[in-house]
């Protein structure tokens, strides 16, 4: 049995981040495995970038295209930030992860860095501390978990898989229940409350970043984006893990440079400029 799968669900133009996400995980944790579930097909250049990663970094990943593509109409109006499709990452059934001991569901627009203790180890410790087979955090003054969700596969799915299968088999019921929600994390809170409960989660708040969230600087003019990126990079948790040096190593890697040519993104480029700035100080 493989120890850990890092998984994401993606749709639309966000497929452009798949090569970056896979690259960063496998450079940081060569023994991890990555599964990207995509509603939409990747572009030819994105697939070229994946082949480059497979040949030059690691083959420990797969991309499943067309996943739940006909399950729900993502164009239907809803209040949910990012569209109703964002909830599908929390409805991936046991069958997809049965060969793994642990799963970490993340955001596609992240660059993951190596930490000490490792991603797996810190979440295992937190899960044990709060007494449930997952690790997450309830956002302050809300009924929302975070979208970064770690769990122990067998123990988690014993309680959650019947709930997941129910919604997958009844999409109209799912849509009726979530159409008024603003965040997909509200839906995760709801199904966790129904299936497992929260244990001592409120006594032990734990939300490690594990890397750089590219989307943090997506909105605003250049000055605002710069402030947001610099504030994120200056988090003590990341500084202690050597975030600047690790990201700098990514940007200086010929493989990463080729990925940037094959799957260009203005926020990836902007981050690279900020890393150069920090390295020059």
TrEMBL record:
Domain of life: Bacteria
Name of the protein described by the UniProt record: Uncharacterized protein
């Amino acid at each position: 049995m493989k120890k850990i799968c890092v998984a994401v669900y993606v749709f639309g133009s966000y497929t452009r981040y798949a090569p970056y996400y896979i690259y960063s995980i496998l450079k940081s944790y060569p023994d991890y495995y990555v599964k990207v579930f995509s509603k939409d097909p990747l572009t030819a250049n994105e697939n070229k970038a994946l082949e480059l990663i497979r040949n030059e970094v690691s083959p420990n990943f797969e991309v499943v295209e067309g996943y739940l593509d006909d399950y729900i109409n993502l164009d239907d109006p809803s209040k949910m930030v990012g569209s109703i499709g964002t909830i599908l990452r929390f409805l991936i059934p046991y069958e997809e992860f049965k060969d793994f001991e642990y799963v970490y569901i993340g955001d596609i627009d992240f660059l993951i860095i190596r930490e000490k203790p490792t991603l797996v180890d810190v979440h295992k410790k937190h899960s044990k501390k709060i007494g449930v087979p997952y690790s997450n955090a309830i956002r302050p003054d809300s009924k929302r978990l975070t979208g970064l969700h770690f769990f122990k596969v067998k123990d988690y799915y014993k309680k959650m898989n019947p709930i997941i299968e129910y919604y997958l088999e009844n999409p109209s019921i799912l849509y009726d229940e979530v159409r008024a929600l603003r965040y997909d994390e509200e839906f995760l809170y709801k199904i966790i409350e129904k299936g497992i409960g929260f244990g001592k989660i409120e006594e032990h708040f734990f939300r490690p970043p594990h890397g750089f969230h590219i989307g943090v600087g997506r909105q605003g003019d250049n000055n605002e984006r710069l402030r947001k990126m610099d504030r994120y990079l200056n988090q003590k948790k990341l500084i202690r893990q050597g975030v600047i040096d690790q990201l700098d190593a990514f940007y200086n890697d010929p493989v990463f440079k080729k990925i940037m040519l094959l799957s260009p993104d203005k926020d990836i480029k902007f981050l690279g400029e900020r890393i150069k700035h920090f390295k020059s100080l």
